[in-house]
Write a structure and sequence with these properties.
This protein has 447 residues and is an all-alpha fold. It has a single domain, classed as Ammonium transporter fold, CATH 1.10.3430.10. The protein has 18 helices and no strands. Helix 3 runs parallel beside helix 5, helix 7 packs parallel to helix 16 and helix 9 runs parallel beside helix 11. The longest helix has 39 residues. The radius of gyration is 27 Å and the shape is globular.
Length: 447
């Protein structure tokens, strides 16, 4: 009996084992299946990174509000910060409705896209950001660039421009300057893209274009009354400016490393290069400031690190970290010297947009041609250098010349049109009282 039970048990165990083995065999993953799972996971990881990067870039605009807000008079802190906040509202809508399509729609003409993606049509929210045009993630990421670019211009006209005139200007400028320039440089059909100019994250599209527009705005709007009267214009809160610059540094990681459109070796190179350029940008600015004035100021530290970030932006994914150290140092020093141009030429660039973003974007774009490295990005830099280093530098010169001239001319046209239709500048009484109270009916500090 015991033997019979043992035999029956062994038989049953064998049958169960065979059935389990057959089932396991039928469900075992194939090599193709594993590869597909790894590919799907990688695509989802890239999508998550771009979404996080978009959030970091969005943070940069409130950070800019703090950076600018601390440098103006106490009676203008809210009006200055509102310039950045209103851009988040106005430009977000414009970008989804038509701006993105102008930038990244089909552009066989090489200058502006069609209306393929107007009102968000034909966007696929699960599409990898690297597919650009149809990707909802890429549209969102680029929206944050479109927001901060016109907000940068506001630093040149702080404390004296009508709020309605400013809103009209950034809305029109976004459509007539920013979106077409983004098409030229980043759209696969764009003429500067095909020309071979390199701009990883916006040295020409964002910083040069806004810096040149800021110059036009400062000239057309005119000087602040206080400067004309030789009255002091004390900053209200440099500590807030320092916090804003620190948040810009943080958000800029998304700005530059996110432009790799996925978590890759290029993204990590951009991350490291961005960080070290900010560090040496601050040092370069402070060294020159100390040599010229005998002091290294907190405002200089904040401005210098931003200058370093501006300078590395066009080359973050093309320049290795050791060269990024040089880029930051050079641009930090150059931007400090560039801010003195406003006193020599007589324009009132309130918060040094021209000196930091205009000059920094220009120099950074040229240095991208000088230092672009196959080590940092073989896929793009190797073909870019096919005709030699000097040929690439000349392509960068063409890009900065074209973008700078276009932005300057169109910005002047927009500003003079708004001036003729409704005026650009607040009254002298409003400027004396402060724009927080006269425009917004509020006070930044109730002390």
């Amino acid at each position: 009996m015991v033997r019979l039970r043992g035999a029956l048990f062994a038989l049953g165990l064998g049958i169960c084992s065979a059935a389990f083995a057959q089932d396991a065999s039928s469900s075992a993953p194939t090599l193709d299946g594993v590869a597909q799972q790894v590919s799907d996971a990688s695509a989802k990881g890239d999508l998550i990174w771009v979404a996080v990067a978009a959030a970091l870039v969005l943070l940069m605009t409130p950070a800019l509000a703090m950076f600018y807000g601390g440098m103006v008079r106490r009676t203008n802190v809210l009006s200055t910060m509102m310039h950045s906040f209103i851009a988040m509202g106005v430009i977000s809508v414009i970008w989804l409705v038509v701006g993105y399509s102008i930038s990244f729609g089909s552009a066989p003409n090489g200058f502006f896209g069609d209306l393929t993606y107007a009102l968000g049509n034909n966007l696929k929210m699960a599409e990898p950001a690297a597919s650009m045009g149809p990707s909802g993630a890429f549209m969102l990421f680029q929206m944050m660039f479109a927001i901060i670019t016109p907000a940068l211009i506001s630093g040149a006209i702080a404390e004296r421009m009508k709020f309605g005139a400013y809103v009209a200007f950034i809305a029109i400028w976004s459509l007539l300057v920013y979106s077409p320039v983004a098409c030229w440089v980043w759209n696969g059909d764009g003429w500067l893209f095909k020309h071979g100019a390199l701009d990883f994250a916006g040295g020409t599209v964002v910083h040069l274009a806004s810096g040149v527009a800021a110059l036009a705005a400062a000239i057309v709007v005119g000087k602040r009354r206080a400067l004309v009267k030789h009255e002091p214009v004390p900053p209200n809160n440099i500590t807030m400016t320092l916090i804003g610059s620190g948040l810009l540094w943080f958000g800029w990681i998304g700005f530059n490393a996110g432009s790799a459109l996925g978590m890759s070796d290029v993204a990590m190179n951009a991350f490291v290069s961005t960080h070290v350029a900010a560090a040496t940008g601050m040092l370069g600015w402070l060294i020159v400031e100390r040599l010229k004035t005998g002091k290294a100021t907190a405002l200089g530290a904040a401005s210098g690190l931003v200058a370093g970030l501006v300078g590395i932006t066009p080359g973050a994914g093309f320049i290795a970290p050791r060269e990024a150290l040089l880029v930051g140092l050079i641009v930090g020093a150059v931007c400090y010297l560039a801010i003195s141009l406003k006193s020599k030429f007589g324009y009132d660039d309130s918060l040094d947009v021209v000196g930091v973003h205009g000059a920094g974007g220009f120099v950074g774009a040229i240095l991208t041609g000088v230092f672009a490295s196959v080590e940092a990005n073989k896929a793009i830099v190797e073909p870019a250098l096919a005709d030699g280093r000097m040929a690439l530098i000349l392509k960068q010169v063409v890009a900065v010349g074209a973008v700078g001239a276009f932005s300057l001319v169109v910005s002047f046209a927009i500003l003079y049109a708004i001036k003729a239709l409704g005026g650009l500048r607040v009254t002298e009484d409003d400027e004396i009282t402060g724009l927080d109270e006269t425009i917004h009916g509020e006070a930044g500090y109730n002390l």
